């Protein structure tokens, strides 16, 4: 087939959902394009996820979201170990702090059972404090959700995109969709700043901008209102203070603020939930951070004495609807995947499965390939052996024993590997999501010059370019 021939499917957006869809399509005979407006995979909403692998126990029964979160949990739990995606099954406790919340627990149990999750069970206060001894005083009761897990929000979209590319998909970065046109045969010309590409089908997984892309295709079914979520990450010395994911009793408007360990060995508190007008600005606020600190002290008082490593802010793609906005338009050869909020990380593989089924039902031939290549990503989880701890790796290449980022124990060889990966690190922001370099206590104060020099030499980019990207990412 000519290199100029139209792609069978173009996926707009390389967040965790778009990358998962491209992965599934690349496992078929379809020529697949993954088009991303930003400079890297998973660098938008996906990177600021709360990093919980949800069972779906609390989803609204009967919704598409409930079904896909449940299915996605099964698929991703099974897929993660082989792909090198860090997952830790810590379980969660959902805590009632007052009588009104305690009464609400029975309704949450009923919702969980309607969603097919029967492992949920009540805990009296004594058992709760036995499980979480550093919890603040005054908790009345709780629910145990033993299968809730923590996951790496960085590795997941990178793993999906890497597998897509390994199986022949084309990835184009810094290529925002600027306009569309269709010829007489229904082939779309997709205009980007770097030229026009053609595709027979388009899948809109554009996240915060999914509504704008949807309108390009003649639809007006939803509007994305960015919902800002601020999160605080505490130092690794705080990790022994929390054993489970500590969840609040949700309200009608928000699931509330949680306290949770991370797969990197930290403790996280958040997120806030504030609707904002601008899809391009994700900045922390004094009031938001102050509120998170107050909640953290209430839930785990000892966190008040711990150092804060970093603050993250993400914008979620909230809409006026209470469910995912996924639909197939066979006449226009178009699929919309909109309104995917924080549960999209968990549901990503199920959303991809659902979209591919919809494409087949609409008449697109998606014959499975018999030469599919799997991938295994470098495992960044603190609960798993890291390269500096693996004598066999160091024997093969001493670079795996040469630590250059001491806060996160990242080695010289890991930096070089990330620069040479199939979907390589092109900036320091991209490097930290592939290796954890500069992600730790000093936030790169001591190692950034060395790390940037290594990445510059390996990638052919200038030090000034790499440092400018880090400054932009830190704002």
Broad structural category: alpha+beta
Q: How many alpha or pi helices?
A: 13
Percent in helix: 25-40%
Q: Determine the N-to-C terminus distance.
A: 45 Å
Number of DSSP strands? 22
Q: Give the DSSP E fraction (strand runs of 2 or more residues).
A: 15-25%
Determine the mean pLDDT: 94
Characterize the largest beta sheet: strand count, sense, and whether it forms a barrel. Answer: 8 strands, mixed
Poorly predicted runs are: 470-475
Shape: globular
From the alpha carbons, calculate the radius of gyration and give it in angstroms.
22 Å
Descriptive account of the structure:
With 475 residues, the protein is α+β, with helices and mostly antiparallel strands. Helices cover 32% and strands 22% of the residues. It has 13 helices and 22 strands. Strands 1, 2, 9, 10, 11, 12, 19 and 20 form an 8-stranded mixed beta sheet that branches. Strands 13, 15, 16, 17 and 18 form a 5-stranded antiparallel beta sheet that branches. α1 runs parallel beside α5. It is globular. The N and C termini lie far apart (45 Å). The C terminus is likely disordered.
Based on the model shown, name its key terms.
475 residues; five-stranded antiparallel β-sheet; 22% strand; 13 helices; eight-stranded mixed β-sheet; 32% helix; alpha+beta; single chain
What order do the helices and strands come in, and which of them pair?
Elements (H helix, E strand, L loop, with lengths): L6 E6 L3 H11 L5 E4 L16 E2 L10 H20 L3 E2 L3 E5 L2 H16 L6 E4 H7 L9 E5 L3 E3 L3 H12 L3 E3 L6 E4 L5 E5 L2 E10 L5 H7 L8 E10 L10 E4 L9 E4 L5 E4 L3 E2 L10 H14 L8 E11 L6 E5 L4 E5 L5 H18 L29 H6 L6 E3 L4 E2 H8 L8 H8 L12 H12 L3 H12 L1
Parallel strand pairs: 1-2, 1-12, 2-9, 5-14, 12-20
Antiparallel strand pairs: 3-8, 4-8, 5-7, 6-7, 10-11, 11-12, 13-16, 13-17, 13-18, 15-16, 19-20, 21-22
Helix pairs in contact: 1-5, 1-8, 2-8, 10-12
């Amino acid at each position: 087939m000519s290199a100029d021939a139209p792609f069978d499917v173009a996926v707009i957006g390389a967040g965790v959902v778009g990358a998962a869809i491209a992965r599934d399509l690349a496992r078929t005979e379809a020529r697949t394009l993954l088009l991303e407006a930003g400079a890297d995979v998973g660098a938008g909403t996906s990177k600021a996820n709360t990093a919980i692998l949800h069972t779906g126990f609390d989803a609204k029964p009967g919704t598409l979201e409930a079904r896909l979160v449940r299915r996605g949990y099964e698929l991703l739990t099974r897929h993660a170990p082989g792909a090198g995606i860090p997952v830790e099954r810590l379980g969660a406790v959902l805590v009632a702090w007052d009588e009104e919340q305690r009464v609400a627990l029975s309704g949450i149990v009923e919702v969980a059972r309607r969603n097919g999750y029967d492992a949920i069970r009540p805990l009296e206060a004594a058992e709760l404090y036995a499980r979480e001894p550093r919890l603040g005083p005054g908790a009345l009761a709780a629910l145990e959700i033993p299968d809730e897990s923590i996951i790496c929000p960085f590795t997941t979209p990178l793993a999906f995109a890497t597998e897509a590319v390994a199986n022949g998909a084309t990835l184009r970065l810094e290529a925002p969709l600027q306009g569309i046109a269709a010829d007489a045969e229904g082939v779309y010309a997709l205009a980007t700043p770097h030229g026009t590409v053609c595709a027979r089908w388009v899948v809109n997984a554009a996240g915060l901008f999914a509504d704008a892309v949807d309108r390009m295709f003649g639809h007006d079914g939803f509007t994305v209102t960015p919902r800002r979520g601020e999160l605080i990450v505490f130092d690794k010395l705080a990790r022994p203070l929390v054993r489970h994911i500590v969840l609040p009793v949700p309200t009608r408007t928000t699931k509330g603020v949680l306290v949770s360990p991370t797969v990197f060995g930290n403790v996280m508190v958040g997120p806030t939930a504030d609707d904002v007008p601008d899809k391009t600005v994700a900045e922390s606020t004094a009031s938001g951070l102050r509120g998170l600190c107050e909640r953290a002290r209430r839930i785990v008082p000892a966190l008040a004495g711990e150092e804060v490593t970093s603050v993250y802010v993400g914008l979620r793609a909230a809409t006026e609807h209470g469910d995912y906005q996924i639909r197939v338009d066979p006449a226009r050869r178009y699929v919309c995947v909109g309104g995917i909020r924080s549960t999209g990380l968990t549901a990503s593989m199920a959303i991809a499965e659902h979209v591919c089924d919809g494409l087949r039902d609409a008449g697109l031939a998606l014959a499975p390939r018999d030469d599919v290549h799997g991938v295994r990503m470098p495992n960044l989880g603190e609960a798993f052996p890291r390269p500096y701890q693996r004598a066999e790796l160091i024997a093969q290449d001493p670079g795996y024993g040469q630590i250059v980022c001491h806060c996160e124990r990242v080695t010289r060889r890991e930096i070089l590997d990330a620069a040479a990966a199939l979907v390589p690190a092109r900036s320091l922001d991209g490097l930290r999501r592939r290796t954890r370099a500069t992600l730790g206590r000093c936030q790169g104060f001591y190692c950034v010059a060395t790390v940037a020099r290594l990445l510059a030499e390996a990638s052919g980019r200038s030090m000034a370019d790499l440092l400018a990207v880090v400054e932009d990412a830190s704002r």
